C-alpha cells in the first residue's frame, strides 16, 4: 500500500520563506541595475598607448622613474612609474599629439615632443637619462616614423589632415578608405549596397567597402570602438558626417 503523507504548513515558516524570497528578488534587481549602470563604460574606445624602457647612460634600467604623457591639444596628462626592469606603459590615451616626459631623482629630465598618436596605435618610445651633473636637458622634437613591434595588425590610418583637405564627392568619408592598399568601393550598379530598392543600407547612401577581396557585408565597422554594423544586411549602421570624424583606420589584417 502506498501512502502519501501531507501536512499543514506552519504560518511562521511561510512568513520566513516569503521574506527570503523577497530578499532574493531585491538583490537580483539591485544586481541588474548595477550591471546596466556599469555596462556603458565597458564599451571599447578608439585609443592608443605609449610604452618603452627607461635606461641610464650605462644601459642599466631605471626603476621608479615617473613617465608623463601630456596631450598638447587638451592638456590631459597621465603618468606612470617604471617597473623593476625600467619598463613603462601608458594605455587608453585618446588620439592626438603628445609630449612624453621622464623625471627621476639625480638625473636630468628627458622629453619627446610632437608625438602623433593615432587610433589603435601602440607606440614604443625608449629614453636614456643622463646624470644631473650636466645642466642641459634632452629634448627630442619631431615625429619620427613609428614602427609598431607589439601590434601584429596591418592597416593604414587616414589622418585628420587627409580628412579635412582631400576632395570628396558627396562628402562620403568611405572614399578616403580606398587610399588603403586592398580596399575598394562597391562598383556594381545593381548591388544591394548601392541601389537595390529594398535595401535599407542603400537607402542611406552608397558607401560599401570591400577589403582584401572580401564581400562588402564582411566588413566590420566600429565607431569609437563600438559596433556600428547594420544587422540586416551587414553594412554600416550610422553613417558619420565628414565633419565629425577626426581620423579613422582601415585594418586589412588583424
Work out the radius of gyration: 28 Å
Number of helices: 4
The outline comes out as elongated
SSE order in H/E notation?
HEEEEEEEEEEHHEHEEEE
Taking the sheet with the most strands, its summary is: 5 strands, mixed
Tally of distinct domains: 2
Describe what this molecule looks like in 3D:
With 254 residues, the chain is α+β, with helices and mostly antiparallel strands. The chain has two domains: 47-141, Immunoglobulin-like (Sandwich), CATH 2.60.40; 154-253, no CATH class. The protein contains four helices and 15 strands. It has helices at residues 11-38, 160-165, 174-177, 200-203, and strands at 47-56, 66-71, 77-81, 87-94, 96-103, 110-117, 122-124, 127-129, 138-141, 154-158, 183-185, 209-211, 222-223, 226-227, 248-253. The strands form five sheets. A five-stranded mixed sheet has the order 3-2-5-6-9, with no helix packed on it. Strands 1, 4, 7 and 8 form a four-stranded mixed sheet that branches. Strands 10-15 form a two-stranded antiparallel sheet. The longest helix is centred in the first third of the chain and has 28 residues, at 11-38.
Amino acid at each position: 500500500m502506498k501512502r502519501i503523507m501531507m501536512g499543514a504548513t506552519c504560518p511562521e515558516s511561510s512568513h520566513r520563506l516569503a521574506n527570503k524570497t523577497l530578499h532574493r528578488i531585491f538583490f537580483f534587481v539591485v544586481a541588474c541595475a548595477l550591471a546596466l549602470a556599469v555596462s556603458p563604460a565597458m564599451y571599447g574606445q578608439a585609443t592608443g598607448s605609449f610604452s618603452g624602457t627607461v635606461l641610464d647612460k650605462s644601459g642599466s634600467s631605471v626603476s621608479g622613474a615617473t613617465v608623463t604623457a601630456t596631450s598638447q591639444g587638451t592638456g590631459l596628462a597621465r603618468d606612470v612609474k617604471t617597473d623593476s626592469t625600467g619598463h613603462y606603459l601608458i594605455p587608453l590615451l585618446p588620439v592626438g599629439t603628445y609630449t612624453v616626459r621622464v623625471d627621476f631623482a639625480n638625473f636630468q629630465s628627458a622629453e619627446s615632443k610632437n608625438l602623433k598618436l593615432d587610433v589603435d596605435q601602440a607606440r614604443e618610445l625608449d629614453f636614456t637619462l643622463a646624470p644631473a651633473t650636466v645642466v642641459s636637458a634632452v629634448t627630442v622634437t619631431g615625429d619620427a616614423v613609428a614602427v609598431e613591434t607589439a601590434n601584429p595588425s596591418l592597416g593604414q590610418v587616414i589622418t585628420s589632415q587627409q580628412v579635412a583637405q582631400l576632395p570628396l564627392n558627396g562628402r562620403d568619408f568611405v572614399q578616403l578608405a580606398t587610399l588603403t592598399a586592398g580596399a575598394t568601393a562597391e562598383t556594381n550598379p545593381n548591388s544591394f549596397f548601392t541601389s537595390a530598392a529594398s535595401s535599407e543600407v542603400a537607402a542611406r547612401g552608397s558607401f560599401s567597402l570591400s577589403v582584401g577581396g572580401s564581400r562588402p557585408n564582411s566588413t566590420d565597422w566600429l565607431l569609437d570602438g563600438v559596433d556600428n554594423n547594420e544587422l540586416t544586411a551587414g553594412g554600416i549602421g550610422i553613417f558619420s558626417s565628414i565633419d565629425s570624424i577626426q581620423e579613422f583606420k582601415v585594418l586589412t589584417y588583424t
